[in-house]
Amino acid sequence: MPLLLVLAMTRWNADYDDMLIANVDSDLRIAEQYLGRILTSTGTDIRSIAESSLFGDVLRAPSRERQRFLNQRRIALQLDFLYFLPRDVLPTAPSKWPVITAAAAGTLSSQIDIFTAQDLAALSPELQQRARIPLIETEAAVPTTRTVEDRGMVVHSAAPVTVLGQEGVLVGGILLNRNLDFIDTINALVYLSDSAGKSRQGTATLFLDDTRISTNVRLFEEVRALGTRVSASVRDRVLTQGQTWLDRAFVVNDWYISGYLPLTDSFGKRVGMLYVGFLEAPYQAAKRAAYWTIVAVFIGVIAISAPLFLWLAKGIFSPLEQMTRTMKRVERGDLAARNGAVGSRDEIGQVAAHLDTLLNQVQDRDQALRDWADELNTRVDKRTAELRTANSKLEDTFRQLAMSEKLASIGEITAGVAHEINNPVAVIQGNVDVIRMTLAGHTGEIETELNLIDNQVLRIDAIVGKLLQFARPTEFGTFEENVDIAPLVEDCLVLVDHVLSKQSITIHRAFEHSPPVAINPGELQQVVINLVMNAAQAMDGAGDLSLRLAPMTRDDQPGTLLSVCDTGPGITDQDITAVFNPFFTTKPGEGTGLGLSISQTLIQRAGGLISVRNRAQTGAEFSIWLPATEGDHLASNSTLPHRRPKPAIQTSSG
After folding, report:
1. What is the rounded distance in angstroms from the CA atom of residue 99 to the CA atom of residue 157?
2. 262 by DSSP, 3-state: which?
3. Of 94, 98, 89, 85, residue with least CA distance to 160
4. Of 308, 347, 518, 532, which is most buried by a Cβ count within 10 Å?
5. CB–CB of 593/583 below 8 Å?
6. Max alpha carbon distance in the chain (Å)?
7. pTM for this model (two decimals)
């Protein structure tokens, strides 16, 4: 209700203000029409003189008679000046006004013009003195260095004279500076034309530029505010932009609902303003009185209705509060809580009784649920046993996947080695032995080359042995051993040397003495080779591969940390959190996406941790931490055979 009241009062206030603006707009139109009538009537009066036969006779009389006639007509028509310009002096007239030019062309013209002090002095020293208005410093006006306004705003009219032999222009006008009859007439027309005129306390003003030259606005009780100036904001809107001002404005010493109309002279320049406005204070007081009346009525209604509403609300909220207390007791576990009699037989009393019925049903069902709990626990135990069996099968399946991934990772390495290398190596070794037997002690000159062939055959044989050891680790050692990681990493580098040697990859080793770890060496080899191969692929042809080995304690448990770093582009922020997910790969069509997932599982199964991060400079870094074994069995169990027995010499025919 208060919100609706505020909205209604706001809307009413806006409509009330719009009505005031509409009133001042109507007032301004009346003042504008009166000014237009003055211009029209002045021109009509001068034309009537110019076209009269009597004026034709006067033009033929001596100049003294002519001047006397013009003075009489000027006074009768309430003009401030009236003179005749013969046709022969028009081209050399000192003041060629557009109205005179139009009259010389045969057209009646009546406009507002601004006369300088010299122009007024040429007409009459009295007019010059009447036009002079000292400027009064006015707050909020545009700053100026001028101290007096000596120009005059004139209703300037000219009519053509076409008397045979006496052609010319009859010129007359009214000085509007200090013309209080003119401005008081406008004020009377606007604000005393209806029954509400006096209460509106209206004012009217004529401005020359931004200076009041004729006004009924009072500076003091009996002193008119001649020489005061309009505010800078009004001047800019009306004189500079040429717009009509319809808004509240501060006029001399109070706020008025104001209308300002720009005035233009015969040259089309904006030279002044016509103003009408009425005092804002009475209307503001009326609005405040209306506001307080509405607020008082509203407070009275609330004061009368509030006790009644509170009495009615008590009969509603008391049972509701009782039900709320009952529900809180139920929430705390007291299922025996009930509302009981709430002292009401209406709809709320029926709801309270129905709630008690529902609580009875809840209590019964709670007991039934407790009875089911034991049976549910039995079923859960049975289901847990089934899940253990399923989990065991899942682990078996994972081991099979791990073996499949392992075979896939060494497929390219072992496919052309086991079959294709052993026989050629045996043939090479056999032929070297045949050369030695054939030369029988004459091999001195080529002994160095033969020894080099022997060494390379032994190196090839060692590589083949390590490949077979990687493919079938159970044939070469126990399933889980105390492994020294440094020689195992060296063996892995031998296995992938054929890949690294095809690229411009430099290997950097930084191996510190570290404790042995407990892990299946074949599984650790699988992880290391996977990381090295991934690093080589990431560097795409050239880079630095860094292998660091150091002791590291994690959660108070000693262990060994192996880091594999490359100088590739690194891993995007979007992919780095998913690299260990099964089947995730950045090389679709080139891999299964299981390598890193299986590597993570193998390391975690050994009690270790594998992680990845992007290096500060460039590339990625994979870290493997494994816990140290109890005791030191480095010498006995950590190393694997490095070469097989030399193959027997085989010969081939053909």
Report:
1. 6
2. strand
3. 85
4. 532
5. yes
6. 168
7. 0.49
